[in-house]
Design goal:
Blueprint (H helix, E strand, L loop, with lengths): L2 H29 L3 E2 L11 E2 L6 H19 L8 H22 L4 H17 L18 H21 L6 H19 L3 H23 L10 H20 L13 H25 L12 H7 L4 H22 L5 H23 L1
Antiparallel strand pairs: 1-2
Amino acid sequence: MDLYSYAIIAFAVSFAFSLIFTPAITQLCMKHKLYDQPNERKVHHIAVPRLGGTLFLPSMGIGMAIALSVMYGGFQENFEITISTFLMIAGAFMIYLIGIIDDLKGIEAKHKFIIQFVAALFFPLCNLMINNLHGIFGIYEIPLWISYPITVFTILLIVNAINLIDGIDGLSSSLSSIILLTFAILFHRLNATIFSLMSASLAGAIMAFFLFNMFGKIGKNKIFMGDAGSLFLGYVLAYLAIKYQMYNDGSVFIYREESLLISITLLFIPCIDVIRVALSRKIQGKRMFDADKTHIHHVLMQRGLSMRMTLAVIISLFVFISATNYLLYDFIPSTLIIIIDIIIYALFIYISKRQTK
C-alpha cells in the first residue's frame, strides 16, 4: 500500500466516526438547549444546535491513529513526529477548548484573542514560520525580527478568517475540505506522511459534518460547527499552510519556489474577505472587529441569491482563482499573480454590490 491508501483509510475512519456521532451531539444540544441563536447579523432565523465542530479533533485523531497503526503493520519506514507537531497539538487543543467554552457560555472577544495569540506563538517558538517570500515582491529570505510577527499575524488572520466565513450552511466546511484534500495530495508528493494523513483525516470529519449541516432538517439532525469547529479548523489550516511553504535549506522539504503562492492561493478567499471587511469598517470609522453583514456571503445574499446559490458562487470563485493561478504560474511572476487575484476579487465584490443597489 502506498501513502494514498493510508490517507484514504484516515479519511474513511474519520468520516465514519463523525457520521456516527454527530447525531448524538445534535441530540445532546437539543436536550440541553445548546443552540446558535438567530440575531440581526446572522442569516438563519431559527435556533440550531451548534456543537458539531467538537467532533473535528477526536475524529481527526482517531482517523490518523488507525491509519498509522495499519501503516506500521506492513510499512517498513522510520516515522518521526517533530516538536512542531507536538506544539501544534497543544496549540490546537487550546483553540479547541476556548471554542467549546465560547459555544457553551460565551467569551469576551479580547480573552479569546489572547488565547489565539498564545497558540500562534507556538509556531515561531518551534522554528515554524514564514521566513522566505520566495520572490514575491522581489523578496526572498527575511530576518527573524520580521518573520516572527508576520507568522503570528498570518495565523491569527487565517484562524479568524475561517471562523468569520462560517456564516452560511456548508461554506466553511466545503471550502476547508477542498483545501485540506489539496494539502493531502501536496504533502503526499513530498512524502510527508503525518501531514498528508492529518489533512485527509480532518477532511473526512468535515465532510461528514457537511452532510448534516447542509442537508439536515431543523429540529431533527441539522447542526452548526460552532467556534469549537471553526477556530480549530482555522488553526490546523494555518499550520499546514505555513508548514508547506517554509524554507528550510532542504533539510525537511526540497525548495519549491511556488510553495508560498500555493498556500496563499488556497486560503486567499477567506483571508482577503476578512481584510476587506476590517479595512472597510476602519475607513467608515467603525471598530474593525464589530460584527455586521458585509462579508462575501452577506453581499451575495443581499443581491437576492439563495444560501445554496451563494455557496456555489463562492466555491466557483475559489476554483476560478485557483485555476487562474495554476495556468499563469509558468508565464508571469508570483507577485503579478497575487495582484491579479486581488483585482478579480475586488471586481467580484464591486459588481455584486452594484447589483444590490
